[in-house]
Amino acid sequence: MSSKTPIDPTLAGKYPKAATDSSTRIRAAGNASASFENKKSRRANERAAEKRKTITEDCINLDLNQYSDRAVDIDFINKVHLTYDGGEKGNPPIQQPHRDLPKTFVPRPIKSLHVIEEHLNDGTGKGLIAIENNNMHFLLAPRKEKSVFWKPKKAKNVMDAFQKAEESINLGNARKNSSSRQVFGDKSSVKYTVMGVQTSLGSKGVKLHSRQAGALARTKDEWAWDVIQKHIAKVEHAFMEICPSEILRHLDLAREVVSFKTFPSHDGTKNCKYFASVAYAQNVYLAMHDDDDFTYSIIMPLVDHLSDDVILYFCFPSLGLAVPLRAGDILIFNPRTLHGVSSRCRVDDKIYCTSMYLKTKVVGGNDNSTPATDEQARLGSAHIHT
Asked: Given this model, what pLDDT does residue 149 score?
């Protein structure tokens, strides 16, 4: 990535136009970096910035025009439940779910998209980066930078923690009634749950701990929550090491203006820096969709071993391409770019698909009874592209 290609981090966010206090806070956070354009970020130092530049330059810079011939029309994606079959030869194909769906279920083979393989074949452990008109659609971390981060023993510990959190409460597929963000799996009953900081449609404000925290405390399994919190913090550390400085500066200045909540330890004494929640599910695939988030999200597939085998694909149908993911890969992506996870390559694999993110509503505080500060009102008076 060249410094001549600046990134606009606000292109990864969803910004409401309403005049409410919560919406004003969201716009204020989004506008913070632009308003302090000439002010040097306090967190940045030249050594760290140079390291990030070196790592991102160790990515293959993709020319998105090469893949446009297989791009899927956005209107079509929004009208159906478009899914992609990542199964290898001999793997059972994905099937129409045995439940009512809001839209037509449309499965397609992964090869209907351009599968990016340059980074798999050159043997250097390079990552991928895709930028178009100042919009970074995604960045796949160079594998050699973080493969040491993902050890089989640690992987099993994190997967055990997710399984314990999943079993702690009886939650099914949180997206089963969604018109766009559907989740599918091998069985008709699919678990897809979220933990961390949450907002509720039935109440104002932001909950620091989702229901799993209380359930794990009742069975004295608080360790599972804290293992997941530490895992997210480590992934965040990788995010801070490889992410372009514009994105980190945007988040740092947003937090100065709006002190939004992030994923806490079970006792609340520790917090992640940027991300508030994690969604997780075992052996699932997703309909193509976008998300109402504030900033870039991270997808990381978890298995209990480290190998060079591709285990699933992360798809960007409107770009015409799919990114193969291996155990331990970290993919930073723009949640506003239509995306989704394919079915797994091998039915015998046990994969926890995890996604770390920061919801726009969390940034706004989900509470219009708390007035915006004068600074938030000033920064939030200008609308941002939606």
From this structure: 52
**How far are the Cα atoms of 82, 236, 298 from residue 151, in angstroms, in the given order?**
34, 17, 19
CB 164 within 8 A of CB 80: no
Tally the domains of the chain.
1
Buried/exposed 114-149: b ≥16 CB within 10 Å, e otherwise: bbbeebeeeeeebbbbbbeeebbbbbbbbbebbbee
Q: How far apart are CA 191 and CA 180, in angstroms?
A: 17
How far apart CA 26 and CA 14 sit, in angstroms, is 9
Residue-level pLDDT at 193? 83
Q: Which domain holds residue 62?
A: 9-89+112-170+190-379
Say if 94 falls within a structural domain.
no
Q: Looking at residue 343, which CATH number applies to its domain? A: 3.60.130.30
pLDDT at res. 38: 43
* pLDDT value of position 27: 96
Over residues 267-292, mean pLDDT: 94
DSSP assignment letter at 365: T
Percent of the chain with pLDDT over 90: 64
Alpha-carbon span 287 to 290, nearest angstrom: 10
* Rounded CA separation 296/239 (Å): 10
Other CB atoms within 10 A of residue 95 CB:
12
| Confidence band for 148, pLDDT divided at 50, 70 and 90 | very low
Is residue 267 predicted with pLDDT exceeding 90?
A: yes
What mean pLDDT is reported for the chain? 87
Within a domain: 103: no
Q: Return the beta strands (E) in 277-370 as ranges.
A: 277-282, 284-286, 297-302, 310-316, 321-326, 331-333, 340-341, 352-357
Q: Which pLDDT score, from 0 to 100, does residue 261 have? A: 96
H-helix or E-strand containing 66? none
In a domain, 385, yes or no: no
In a domain, 102, yes or no: no
